[in-house]
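C-alpha coordinates please, single chain.
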Amino acid sequence: MNTGIGRLGFGDWNAEQEGLAVAKAPARQIYIKDWLSDEKLGRCRPETRGIWMDVICHMHQDGGTGVFRATPEELMRLCRCTSAELERSLIDLKKTKAANVTRRNGNVTLTNRRLQREHKNVVANRLRQRKHRQKGT
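Here you go.
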Protein backbone atom coordinates (compact mmCIF):
# COMPACT_ATOMS: atom_id res chain seq x y z
CA MET A 1 0.00 0.00 0.00
CA ASN A 2 1.39 3.38 -0.89
CA THR A 3 0.51 5.84 1.86
CA GLY A 4 1.48 8.96 -0.02
CA ILE A 5 4.85 9.46 1.65
CA GLY A 6 6.71 6.53 0.14
CA ARG A 7 9.91 7.66 -1.44
CA LEU A 8 9.14 11.35 -1.29
CA GLY A 9 11.84 11.87 1.28
CA PHE A 10 11.70 15.10 3.19
CA GLY A 11 9.71 18.24 2.54
CA ASP A 12 9.73 19.24 -1.11
CA TRP A 13 12.99 17.44 -1.93
CA ASN A 14 12.65 14.13 -3.73
CA ALA A 15 15.53 11.71 -4.29
CA GLU A 16 13.94 10.27 -7.42
CA GLN A 17 13.62 13.74 -8.97
CA GLU A 18 17.37 14.08 -8.53
CA GLY A 19 17.83 10.86 -10.49
CA LEU A 20 18.88 8.91 -7.42
CA ALA A 21 17.47 5.43 -7.22
CA VAL A 22 16.15 4.60 -3.80
CA ALA A 23 16.69 0.84 -3.59
CA LYS A 24 14.33 -1.18 -1.45
CA ALA A 25 16.33 -3.49 0.77
CA PRO A 26 14.76 -6.90 1.47
CA ALA A 27 15.48 -6.60 5.19
CA ARG A 28 16.26 -4.02 7.84
CA GLN A 29 18.94 -4.43 10.45
CA ILE A 30 17.65 -4.03 13.98
CA TYR A 31 19.97 -3.32 16.87
CA ILE A 32 18.52 -5.44 19.67
CA LYS A 33 20.48 -3.66 22.41
CA ASP A 34 19.23 -0.27 21.15
CA TRP A 35 15.62 -1.51 21.01
CA LEU A 36 15.75 -2.92 24.54
CA SER A 37 17.64 0.00 26.07
CA ASP A 38 15.65 2.85 24.48
CA GLU A 39 14.41 4.68 27.59
CA LYS A 40 11.69 6.55 25.72
CA LEU A 41 10.29 3.38 24.19
CA GLY A 42 10.73 1.54 27.49
CA ARG A 43 8.26 3.94 29.11
CA CYS A 44 5.61 2.94 26.56
CA ARG A 45 3.03 0.21 27.04
CA PRO A 46 3.78 -3.23 25.55
CA GLU A 47 0.95 -2.72 23.03
CA THR A 48 2.58 0.56 21.95
CA ARG A 49 5.91 -1.16 21.35
CA GLY A 50 4.20 -3.82 19.21
CA ILE A 51 2.30 -1.24 17.18
CA TRP A 52 5.48 0.84 16.81
CA MET A 53 7.37 -2.21 15.46
CA ASP A 54 4.58 -2.73 12.90
CA VAL A 55 4.88 0.95 11.89
CA ILE A 56 8.67 0.60 11.52
CA CYS A 57 8.14 -2.42 9.26
CA HIS A 58 5.66 -0.46 7.14
CA MET A 59 8.12 2.46 6.98
CA HIS A 60 10.68 0.05 5.57
CA GLN A 61 8.21 -1.35 3.02
CA ASP A 62 7.20 2.17 2.00
CA GLY A 63 10.68 3.30 1.00
CA GLY A 64 12.59 3.46 4.26
CA THR A 65 12.38 7.24 4.72
CA GLY A 66 11.50 6.99 8.42
CA VAL A 67 8.20 8.77 7.79
CA PHE A 68 4.83 7.06 7.54
CA ARG A 69 1.50 8.76 6.90
CA ALA A 70 -1.93 7.14 6.95
CA THR A 71 -5.44 7.68 8.18
CA PRO A 72 -6.27 6.24 11.62
CA GLU A 73 -8.39 3.57 9.90
CA GLU A 74 -5.46 2.52 7.69
CA LEU A 75 -3.14 2.44 10.70
CA MET A 76 -5.59 0.22 12.61
CA ARG A 77 -5.67 -2.25 9.72
CA LEU A 78 -1.93 -2.17 9.05
CA CYS A 79 -0.97 -2.42 12.72
CA ARG A 80 -3.67 -4.98 13.48
CA CYS A 81 -5.09 -3.08 16.43
CA THR A 82 -8.31 -1.52 17.66
CA SER A 83 -9.12 2.17 17.61
CA ALA A 84 -8.59 2.39 21.39
CA GLU A 85 -5.20 0.61 21.19
CA LEU A 86 -4.07 2.88 18.38
CA GLU A 87 -5.16 6.01 20.22
CA ARG A 88 -3.39 4.94 23.44
CA SER A 89 -0.27 4.11 21.43
CA LEU A 90 -0.20 7.43 19.59
CA ILE A 91 -0.55 9.27 22.91
CA ASP A 92 2.17 7.06 24.41
CA LEU A 93 4.61 7.65 21.53
CA LYS A 94 4.04 11.39 21.61
CA LYS A 95 4.13 11.75 25.40
CA THR A 96 7.36 9.77 25.79
CA LYS A 97 8.85 11.35 22.64
CA ALA A 98 9.70 7.88 21.31
CA ALA A 99 8.44 9.11 17.92
CA ASN A 100 7.23 12.29 16.30
CA VAL A 101 3.45 12.07 15.98
CA THR A 102 1.56 14.66 13.95
CA ARG A 103 -2.15 14.78 13.14
CA ARG A 104 -3.26 16.92 10.24
CA ASN A 105 -6.19 16.82 7.79
CA GLY A 106 -7.40 13.43 9.00
CA ASN A 107 -3.97 11.81 8.64
CA VAL A 108 -1.47 10.68 11.23
CA THR A 109 2.20 11.12 10.40
CA LEU A 110 4.68 9.07 12.40
CA THR A 111 8.40 9.77 12.17
CA ASN A 112 11.22 7.56 13.38
CA ARG A 113 14.05 10.04 13.80
CA ARG A 114 16.79 7.43 13.51
CA LEU A 115 15.46 5.92 10.28
CA GLN A 116 14.91 9.40 8.84
CA ARG A 117 18.50 10.41 9.70
CA GLU A 118 19.88 7.17 8.18
CA HIS A 119 17.84 7.68 5.01
CA LYS A 120 19.04 11.27 4.65
CA ASN A 121 22.64 10.06 4.99
CA VAL A 122 22.18 7.35 2.36
CA VAL A 123 20.65 9.79 -0.12
CA ALA A 124 23.31 12.44 0.58
CA ASN A 125 26.07 9.86 0.05
CA ARG A 126 24.54 8.74 -3.25
CA LEU A 127 24.30 12.35 -4.42
CA ARG A 128 27.91 13.05 -3.37
CA GLN A 129 29.16 9.92 -5.14
CA ARG A 130 27.22 10.76 -8.30
CA LYS A 131 28.69 14.26 -8.37
CA HIS A 132 32.16 12.83 -7.84
CA ARG A 133 31.72 10.36 -10.72
CA GLN A 134 30.48 13.14 -13.00
CA LYS A 135 33.58 15.22 -12.21
CA GLY A 136 35.82 12.36 -13.26
CA THR A 137 34.24 11.93 -16.70
